[in-house]
Task: structure prediction
Amino acid sequence: MSSTAALDVDAVRRAFPILKQEVHGKPLVYLDSAATAQKPQPVIEATTTFYANENANIHRGVHFLSMQATRRYDEARARIAQAIGAAEAREVIFVRGATEAINLVAQCFLRSRLQEGDEILLTEMEHHANIIPWQLVASATGATVKAIPITDEGVVDLEAAANMMNERTRMLAFAHISNVLGTINPAKELVSLAKAQNIPVLVDGAQAIPHGPVDVQSLGADFYTFSGHKVYGPDGIGVLYGHTNILNAMPPYQGGGDMIERVQFEGSTFRDIPERFEAGTPNISAAISLAVAFDYLESLGWESIQAHETTLLHTALERLAEVPGITLYGPTENRASVVSFAIKDVHPHDIGTFLDGDGIAIRVGHHCAQPLMDRLGVAATTRASFALYNTIEEIDKLVAALLKVQRFFG
Result:
């Protein structure tokens, strides 16, 4: 018998104030956590407490509030490093989100290594944030961006990946979990393939970080990125993880206060990591609150969260299959609680508008993954994403609403 305690979903829901409201006179059913997760009360309180009692700029201040804010900011970095298995706290760089983290790596690590004929390897399922930064440095240097194909089921073709890696490959970057298909990519296998040929690797963990523990050292990638708002934390904060020796060898991304060692008009020198990549006043309260988000998740227990989300996923796939004319995308195994679908002859935007009238929040469109839409042969899909605060009853409401959509438009 499993010793994993069942998640107390009622108690979890009480911790998220936004879920108590009604939309169009109906109880809110929030199924858009893959876009942004809602915030639990401890995260909200951490933000409020900082501004009410601790607000001051960090570093160099000798007064009480500044020293306290600095301590809290540094503790947040150490807490997040511990949560993701980093070897040192300074391997955690605070950025605005996964998008900025990927841009930072593209510009500061990769650009100077590229020349005409070099290749950057992605996959067909990438979010635009893990495509465009690489295209920008490729266009500036004459390099080429190539995509590893996926199968019709939505799984990366490992054989093709191995065959596409060669002496011209300068970077492999891929999503840990697809934001459209829910596919959990074989990250360790992909990293191992790349490392066998000394190819640097970046893993976009934006969709993975809310669904289970991540150990960056075990994974073995050179860089790992994620956004705070996906993991029940604040907006406008994210993390770039990188090996100490790699980060210390990279030039700064931006210039300004707090990242300098000595400034003269004749030239300036810069601090070591992490400050080198955190120019200006950082989002102090968000960093502190992001650490609280990890505290909250670990207090619930990752095994309990994963068991609950697995139940939601399997129930959703089973129930959604009952809707006439529906096409479900993504693999049957090794997937997270994200379900994208289409209903024959009904535009996703019509589905989204119809469901909103029933208080159901879902995501429609290309999900910032237009190359993947092209691969699937559609312009857009409807996406329902399930989180630790969702219930079986909410899946029932989703299916009932989709049946109404099908009857109305069909």
